[in-house]
């Protein structure tokens, strides 16, 4: 099935309850080829042009779920949502970025999905459409299963508030070259609310928000002045974020990577803050 519009796609989903939507296929076809999934039918979303662009709406950007990582990494998109462009630019090799989509990254909900901490920090929402209409759900609720994608629904759009302030995505893949994240950090400044929002990816099944660390560091920033903090504050912020997001399993830990992971998250968070405030 190759619907040419969102309406057609929603109708096709309702008429073929066993059909599985496929966008770039980079996750889905891997699962099919590995014998992990045997869909009764595939619903290709590649011809649904409404899902491939973006538009402005009430101070936010409404992004089509079919935007590819390559498209989001381009300069015009980077000027709009820099952290999402940075995340998209680090996804896999170019062949994957050219076809892999924002919607597929969200629905796959892999812990190391690079767009996920960015969307969590930006407090993005998604529009899910089905035969009964459309509903808006916070990305964090979708990912935690508080408000999951229902049978027959498609993820159509991602709504991202435009903050017009520095925002950063940093990722450690544990090696050089393209790699899935071992840890990632997205940090955004929200000057209108005098807030710092931060999300840590890949260290847990869903992105984690270190809310106390966010509040503490926001209180250290001179919002009306130069918006800087001294290096000691940045260092302490990194450690605060790491201790909030990577559990301390103690020196007897059977998980020897914990200390290294904490260090990695601490460095990423410190650098992310430094880059956002520079
Ligand atoms: C070699 C390789 C390297 C990779 N490296 C990275 C990496 O570094 N970082 C990273 O984040 N990811 C990585 N990925 C994973 C992958 O590329 C991304 O998750 C990609 O964004 C998935 O998008 P897609 O369009 O290919 O999804 P698909 O494979 O088409 O679909 C994935 C899932 O989402 C569902 N789906 C897709 N679109 C919709 C929609 N609009 N509505 C409802 N359901 C939908 C499908 O049914 C399926 O369950 C890598 C993959 C490969 C193969």
Could you please describe the fold and organization of this structure?
- Among the domains are: 1-44; 167-277, Enolase-like, domain 1.
- Helix content is 38%, strand content 21%.
- It is built from twelve helices and ten strands.
- The chain has helices at residues 6-15, 28-33, 69-72, 75-80, 82-89, 94-99, 102-108, 115-121, 139-144, 211-220, 231-245, 258-277; strands at residues 19-22, 41-44, 54-57, 60-64, 125-130, 133-138, 154-161, 167-172, 183-190, 195-201.
- Strands 3-4-7-5-6 form a five-stranded antiparallel sheet. A three-stranded antiparallel sheet has the order 8-9-10, sandwiched between helices.
- Helix 10 packs antiparallel against helix 11 and helix 11 (231-245) crosses helix 12.
- 41% of the residues are buried.
- Bound molecules: flavin-adenine dinucleotide.
- Residues 1-165 form the FAD-binding PCMH-type domain.
């Amino acid at each position: 099935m190759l619907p040419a519009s969102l309406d057609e796609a929603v109708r096709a989903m309702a008429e073929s309850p066993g059909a599985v939507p496929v966008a770039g296929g980079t996750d889905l076809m891997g699962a099919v080829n590995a014998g992990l999934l045997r869909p009764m039918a595939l619903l290709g979303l590649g011809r649904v042009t409404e899902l491939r662009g973006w538009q402005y709406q009430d101070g936010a950007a409404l992004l089509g779920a079919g935007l590819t990582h390559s498209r989001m990494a381009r300069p015009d998109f980077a000027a709009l949502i820099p952290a999402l462009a940075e995340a998209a630019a680090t996804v896999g090799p170019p062949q994957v970025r050219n076809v892999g989509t924002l919607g597929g990254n969200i629905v796959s909900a892999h812990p190391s999905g690079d767009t996920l901490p960015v969307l969590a920090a930006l407090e993005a929402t998604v529009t899910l459409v089905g035969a009964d209409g459309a509903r808006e759900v916070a990305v964090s609720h979708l990912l935690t299963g508080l408000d999951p994608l229902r049978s027959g629904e498609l993820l159509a759009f991602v709504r991202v508030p435009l903050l017009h302030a520095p925002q950063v995505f940093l990722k450690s893949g544990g090696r050089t070259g393209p790699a899935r994240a071992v840890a990632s950090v997205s940090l955004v400044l929200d000057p209108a609310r005098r807030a710092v929002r931060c999300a840590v990816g890949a260290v847990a099944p869903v992105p984690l928000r270190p809310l106390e660390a966010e509040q503490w560091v926001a209180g250290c920033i001179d919002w009306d002045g130069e918006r800087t903090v001294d290096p000691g504050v940045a260092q302490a912020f990194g450690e605060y974020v790491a201790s909030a997001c990577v559990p301390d399993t103690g020196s007897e830990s059977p998980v020897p990577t914990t200390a290294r992971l904490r260090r990695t998250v601490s460095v990423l968070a410190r650098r992310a803050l430094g880059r956002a405030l520079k």
